[in-house]
Amino acid sequence: MNRVLFISYYWPPSGKASIHWPLKIIKYLPEFGFTPSVLTVAEDTFSQKDLSLLDQIDKNLEVIKTNAFEPFDLYKKFLGKDKNEQLVASETISLTNKGLAHRISIWIRMNLFVPDARAGWYPYAVKAGTSFLRKNKFDAIVSIGPPHTTQLIGMRLSKLFSIPHIPVFIDPWVDIVYYKNFKRSRLTLALDNYFEKSVIKNSSQAVFVTETMKDDFVKKYPVLQNKSNVLFWGYDEDEFVNFTPSATKDEIVILHSGNIFDFQNPVNFWKTIKEMISGGQRIRLKFTGTVSPGIMQSIASNGLLEHTDYLGFLPYDKLIEEMQNATYLMVCPTEPRHLPGKLFEYLRTGKPIIAFGDDNDEVENILKAANAGALFKYSSDAKEFFINAAKYNTDMNAIKRFDRRNISRSLAEIIKKIKIK
Fold first, then answer.
1. Distance (Å, rounded) from C-alpha 54 to C-alpha 58?
2. How far apart are CA 91 and CA 259, in angstroms?
3. Most buried pick, 51, 151, 230, 304, via CB within 10 A?
4. Residue 33: which residues within 8 A CB-CB, separation 6 or more?
């Protein structure tokens, strides 16, 4: 049996959404001839906890956990927050907060933590990884980012032990959309670009979760031309069996799952919802995860507060239930290279999907190919969606390629090709 070391900052009981790609790929990988091990942090102090995910880990899986220097306790203290207070991702980079402390904290985050705020994990992970690899032989190292600190850890261990490195990019790196409206110094950008280029150059293969992101990286780094792969985020079929829907209500439920930021605000859509309610329709907006101050303000200003539920963080199984009980599912890609992970779970529910995103051809093409919904620009009122909603009937055969068992098989094939070389 071949062995693969996964490096993932997020691991159960962390409830971070990006945990599901490595968690489920690792779940199925042994079916295709590989024994995985995991190098992770002892505690993720930023994300909410989802203890239910612990039940999904094979009891025989070897997991190496290390300490890390976490800056978020200092961040909380600087902002005057309680040590045990949960941070909200959409608030930490919100542009609606004009406070001096908030603006200083953003500058520090954008310029002093390179490649990201998890850089303090690097020395601990490299040390633990070095000790582990001295005693065990592995055929490949797979690192999942962001945080892209994991890519630097993977590269370092790859060089130390001459093991092929496969970085997985869930999101872009240097020019991720979160940085768009924030100033980063020339020195910070130069260092971040150097790190990114070094990881790409060292990689034996690279994996991207969207075609558009892969094309963007290949254009920037031609060396990737013959070693780039797309393995979509996907869904796990096991999460959708034995589901019993709740009692039917005479109400339209529109659910947005996951974090949503100020720059993802479909301002005119809320006006459409208000018009529909004023016309006599019963509509309920539901949000899971964190909702930015700007979006909450838009919803309030349109008189939708009494029609809105902010559910906050939900355990994964409850989240899937909410998706399957909704009437329509809403998703907001951050940029053309972004395929939100929840899109694939949305597809599996078979519910009509309303998407907002400017120039995101990849999301639009996936929705069209599966007849699952429609994409609108952020400025759109999206009235057309409700006119055509009854026509959307997801083609389940068209989405089987997104089953994570199939994606895990593809990763196994990529690793095998490296070994042959």
1. 9
2. 10
3. 151
4. 1, 2, 412, 416
Confidence (pLDDT) at 90? 45
Domains identified in the chain, total number: 3
* CA–CA separation, 350 and 373 (whole Å): 10
Output the pTM of the full model: 0.86
Percentage of the residues of the chain whose pLDDT score is greater than 70:
85
User: What is the span of the domain harbouring residue 90?
Assistant: 72-109
Element (H, E) at 2: strand 2-8
The label of the residue with tokens 């976490």 reads 70
d(Cα 378, Cα 269) in Å, to the nearest integer?
Answer: 8
The residue-averaged pLDDT of 79-86 equals 56
Q: Which residues make Cβ contacts (< 8 Å) with residue 83, sequence separation at least 6? A: 73, 76, 77
- CATH value at residue 198: 3.40.50.2000
- Class of residue 294 by CB neighbours under 10 A (exposed 0-12, middle 13-18, buried 19+): buried
Helix (H) or strand (E) holding 145, with range, is strand 140-145
Strands 308-312 and 34-41: unpaired
Q: Does residue 296 sit in the same domain as residue 151?
A: no
Greatest CA span in the chain, whole angstroms? 69
Q: What is the DSSP letter of 16?
A: -
